[in-house]
Specification:
One of its GO terms (molecular function) is oxidoreductase activity. This protein has a single domain, classed as 3-Layer(aba) Sandwich (Rossmann fold). It has eleven helices and seven strands. It has helices at about 5-10, 20-30, 45-55, 65-75, 95-125, 145-165, 185, 190-195, 205-215, 225-235, 240-255, and strands at about 10-15, 35-40, 55-60, 80-85, 130-135, 170-175, 220. The chain has a seven-stranded parallel beta sheet with strand order 3-2-1-4-5-6-7, with helices on both faces. Strand 4 (about 80-85), helix 5 and strand 5 form a beta-alpha-beta unit. The longest helix has 29 residues, at about 95-125. It is globular, with a radius of gyration of 18 Å. It starts with a helix and ends with a helix.
Length: about 260
């Protein structure tokens, strides 16, 4: 399996959405392991601050189109791509069409576009690593946030498809599925986040630690909150009971 240091020393790593939160924690952790890190964020100032802190290189801009510039900034190759950028928009069927479209574009299509740009080189040389920050919502759901839940399910499905299609050709894929993490996204999640996520929230650095362990162990599914495995099992084995439990949370949300 190899230690994180062995896998990451001098690796060329791209982390999207790395100006803060989980992305910044990932960038710091990779850099501590000796990797060369390209820090991507829409906020150019935030990307430059994190890159300066870790001795990396800032590659600001849209996560969907960052691969060519990041590859150039890292000397012509990308070993590990962390598709971490995401948005959490709430509502249900009534949510604005633009919110649904943005959720799909950032949470799913940015991963697809990155893979499209990365795979030719990875398949040619026989190795590469794609790390998708999905969310426990991709395994379960999130009350009050249909655009987020639906697109995170799609992000997990795409990661699974990448893994089953290319693992025999040297491409490793990981899906990171945390629950509550103490970030700006959690602070903006409102009452639903307070009910479901805040009580067991962890620090972004704990997610990064789980990612390094998952890479070392070559695990597809990385669960910084181990209880998510129990919830996913309950959902799979008795869907009606699980839906009933989630509906009771929804009823609390409506009070």
């Amino acid at each position: 399996m190899g230690t994180p240091e062995e896998k990451l020393r001098d690796a060329a790593v791209v982390v999207t959405g790395a100006g803060a939160g989980i992305g910044a924690a990932l960038a710091r952790s990779f850099a501590r392991q000796g990797a060369r890190v390209a820090v991507n964020d829409l906020d150019a100032g935030a990307a430059e601050r994190v890159a300066g802190e870790i001795g990396g290189v800032a590659v600001p801009g849209d996560a969907s189109t960052v691969v060519p510039d990041a590859r150039d900034a890292l000397g012509g190759t990308v070993d590990i791509f962390c598709a971490n950028a995401g948005i959490a928009l709430g509502g249900g069927p009534e949510a604005d069409e633009d919110d649904w479209a943005r959720s799909w574009d950032v949470n799913v299509m940015a991963h697809v576009r990155a893979a499209r740009a990365l795979l030719p080189h990875w398949l040619e040389r026989g190795r590469g690593r794609f790390v998708a920050t999905v969310s426990a919502a991709g395994l379960l759901t999130m009350v009050g946030a249909a655009p987020y839940s639906v697109t995170k399910h799609a992000a997990l499905s795409f990661a699974e498809w990448l893994s089953l299609t290319y693992r025999h050709r040297g491409v490793a894929v990981h899906a990171v599925c945390p629950q509550g993490v103490r970030t700006a996204m959690l602070r903006g999640s409102g009452r639903a986040g307070d009910l479901v996520l805040t009580p067991d929230a962890i620090e972004p650095s704990e997610v990064a630690d789980a990612v390094l362990a998952g890479i070392a162990e070559e695990r597809f599914l990385i669960l910084p909150h181990p209880r998510v495995a129990e919830y996913a099992t309950a959902r799979a084995t008795d869907r009606d009971a699980w839906l009933g439990a989630m509906n009771r949370i929804q009823q609390k949300l409506e009070r």
